[in-house]
Hints:
The chain contains 13 helices and two strands, in the order H-H-H-H-E-H-E-H-H-H-H-H-H-H-H. Strands 1-2 form a two-stranded antiparallel sheet. It is globular and about 55 Å long. The model has no long low-confidence stretch (mean pLDDT about 85). With about 300 residues, it is mainly alpha-helical.
Amino acid sequence: MDALILTVILTSIPLILAATGELIAERSGVLNLGVEGMMLMGAVAAFAITSLSGNPYLGVMAAAAAGAMTAAIFAVFTLGLATNQVATGLALTIFGTGLSGLVGAPFVGGTVDGLQAVSIPVLSDLPVLGRLLFQLDLLAYGAFVMLALVAWFLNKSRAGLILRAVGNNHDSAHALGYSVLRVRCAAVIFGGLMAGLAGAYLPLVLTPHWSEGMTAGRGWIALALVVFASWMPSRILIGALLFGGITIIQLVGQARGWEMPSQFLSMLPYLATIAVLVLISRDRNFALMRAPAHLGRIFIGTR
Length: 303
């Protein structure tokens, strides 16, 4: 049972990382549907650099840079050229999927030594919880720390207040002298950096190999997770563990030969995502209660 719970936690880490980054982007008023593409770019960069250098931590840094640079492309079009955010985000996913497949072609079939678990002294010796929470890899620890920092940033810091102001009413924020485009650009690039780290977790921890499209829709689940969490950092952890658990259930079911089509079991995480979105959308007031008022709206300004 402990091993199953640990697997659920590890499976949820990419969702936590990607959803945390997308949360910041959306709270600034930018809807970036290119999370899947940015994760794939992070995954291929992490695997390629780790394979060439033998150092997984260099791979993590390369993944963060790849995700941030991919997000910068999105920012140039949506913020600089004022293109439609939905269409540009979809194009970014297609671009990331194709480019990652091209870059990763020479590495198909290879394996790498990924991130190793790091035990925290004393805490790792605790019964049950020690093995589950305090014998993880550094990127997993970083996911939980970053989620807590983002919660503090949004709710307790002046910069977080400015970010939320830009997302709720960019015209008012601009009138008060805040640079809407700069705030949104920083938020988008941060979101790309986090998506890149989420992608890196796949080949460096979960499956130590590269295969085209290995994110398998996790970027879309991360997008749904932000809505599920009502744009609140505290709920992202719950949602990520829920979706991670559903993913593991379908794998366990296939391994144990449950008498139902394997295709249906593979669909479970995505069926759960659709079900959650449908339930949320039934109550429009609840769905929009914490959504940034200017989410997805284009701002035309000089700063």
